[in-house]
């Protein structure tokens, strides 16, 4: 019994496993959470343990409104923000509400592969939204939507990670963001913006969120403390249309159970109120930025000629496009693992079987010297 | 912003509000949780903050397996237990997996009204399972199932609270439990057992859970720390069929986010491992048992002649059946509130509009002397 694991990650001795998009445990804010837990239980007293407000802990929503207002120039009001048990839960809750099994949902391709699993578990009909090296192609989206209409279908929603994309690291340019919210508004298609990496920006601020650019009703933006504080807290949020926030807040799940991340959310609120959030995230930007640089530079040095390696402005991932000759990412995987390095082949992130010559490398879990060694081993694998 | 509420409950000054089935804040284990938070962050270190195991924190599942084994004579193994964000979340997750919109689910009537909302939000077709003063009638259930079959329908699941029922306080007798699991096994209908009140037993142990009586595959039992420790933790569990546990554990939601109550679950594990659980629950049994007695006795003294008042063996609720003459529960509510007492009219708990002459009174939130005063005011309301 005592061997049942506490955490999700499985370490493979000898393998630098760049498949995991997890924060480095040594960068988690253990002491700040210790202090915040004490402070929440002292300051909020038994309210920390009671049924929470269905929309989430008031102090956390208030801090978020203020924080997002300063960060993005648009502060959600009380009716526009809902605390979730992380983005995965927010996505699950949101899609259950706005769509039914058999409905069509567009997903940028490539995109976060486990979000695709959440949508598939709901019986949704997924269709790819085409991207290029700058992210979603809005011109292609218009064609896709017109094609659906000709078949008598429409897309209820579009899921994408427009900022420091998982897996590619790319951020959608401002003009495309503006064009995208216009298309979505006209088509009455809800944009589901997965915005988890926004604050892990290494070369200056991220582009504005789709939510901050769009008129009311067009974008539901999912945010999280998973990368900026700790994934185990399971505290995220949704900023979005008032009718959706109200329906989720007043629905059976949150009416019956109260706020779904009440305890962890109250502790997060205490941490943020103490000023520990900004200090911690500032440290993460420096640490992860250095890792990004280390991996990117070493890949440029070691990967075969003709490889293209993204240098993301933020987030956790470098995306590699291999030259046309030589083994594909999936074909090279076993050999790479024998050399002590691993990654996720790019096909995983496509809806439509593309990506054989791409791979995703997470630089979040390892120190710069380990990342340089990982790049060296990858170079060997393709040598 | 600073006024956004932290908790769900809304206090109405001057009203003894027996509508809320919430634990008394003064009975929440604030100090034990303080200690456990420190201990978890010390002992488990950064694992407390990493992505959690999708099935829930191993130490918590291991403690539960041992605890349930001693309590019920049947210990779930690792593949039979999943940590949820409370029963509401477990119910939502489970029904999304086993049923689709339009499917028929039976619900004992009366039953927990907010569970009904969770099921309705999923677009399920609900039908009542008939009860009498001892709980679900298995003979009537057989007829209901036969009736559905004649219409070409079948029930995917039956939801009930067989132990210290919400709202009636009644526990299903052993013979009916045995008959019920036999019927469900034969009909291949999953029993969804909401078992939240099991350990708050005031007159000796609760009857065995349906889960402990049934063969593999027949019962999914939902348990929780909401009443025994604190609802704000949002830590519950499911013990049930291996195929269901595996599908939920390996599904997109928990694969993407990791365990949904990881942080609170790790702290709960530390609290339980320290031995604080048994001590706390033993204190709750004494405190809530005294409240049950106080309210029950005072109601017998003050309610109009011909009223029937249940004396539940556990849980949070007394159920009142009013005499045929005089105002109904809904009709008397405004007058009762003017006198400074409130309750939930019984209709809320029925699927089929019955219950006009019943009401639910929660004795969990108030001290014995307040409950006696509440009963006096209720007597006045019907005088």
**Biggest interface:** A-B, 83 and 83 residues
Q: Termini distance of chain A? A: 45 Å
Indicate the mean pLDDT of chain A.
97
The proportion of residues forming helix of chain A, as a percent range, comes to 40-55%
Beta-strand residue percentage of chain A: 15-25%
| Global outline of chain A | globular
Number of helices of chain A: 13
Rounded to an integer in angstroms, the radius of gyration calculated over CA atoms of chain A is: 21 Å
Task: Provide the succession of SSEs of chain A.
Answer: EHHEHEHEEHEHEHEEHHHHEEHEEEH
Structural class of chain A: alpha/beta
Tell me the total number of β-strands of chain A.
Answer: 14
Major pleated sheet of chain A: 8 strands, mixed
Q: Runs of chain A with pLDDT <50, length 5+?
A: none
Strand order of the largest sheet of chain A: 2-9-8-7-6-3-4-5
- The oligomeric state of the chains shown is homodimer
Task: Walk me through this protein's architecture.
The structure is a homodimer of 383-residue chains. With 383 residues, chain A is α/β, with parallel strands linked by helices. Chain A is 42% helix and 15% strand. Chain A has 13 helices and 14 strands. Chain A has helices at residues 30-43, 58-72, 87-98, 113-121, 138-150, 174-187, 210-213, 242-250, 252-257, 262-273, 276-302, 329-338, 368-381; strands at residues 16-17, 81-84, 104-109, 125-132, 135-136, 155-160, 190-194, 219-224, 236-239, 308-309, 317-321, 341-342, 344-345, 358-362. In chain A, the strands form 3 sheets. Chain A has an 8-stranded mixed sheet with strand order 2-9-8-7-6-3-4-5, sandwiched between helices. In chain A, strands 10-11-14-13 form a 4-stranded antiparallel sheet. In chain A, strands 1-12 form a two-stranded parallel sheet. In chain A, strand 7 (190-194), helix 7 and strand 8 (219-224) form a beta-alpha-beta unit. In chain A, helix 1 (30-43) crosses helix 10, helix 11 packs parallel to helix 13 and helix 12 (329-338) crosses helix 13. The longest helix of chain A has 27 residues, at 276-302. Chain A starts with 15 loop residues before the first strand and ends with a helix. The relative contact order of chain A is 0.17. The mean pLDDT of chain A is 97. Chains A and B meet through helix 1, helix 2, helix 3, helix 4 and helix 9 of A and helix 1, helix 2, helix 3, helix 4 and helix 9 of B.
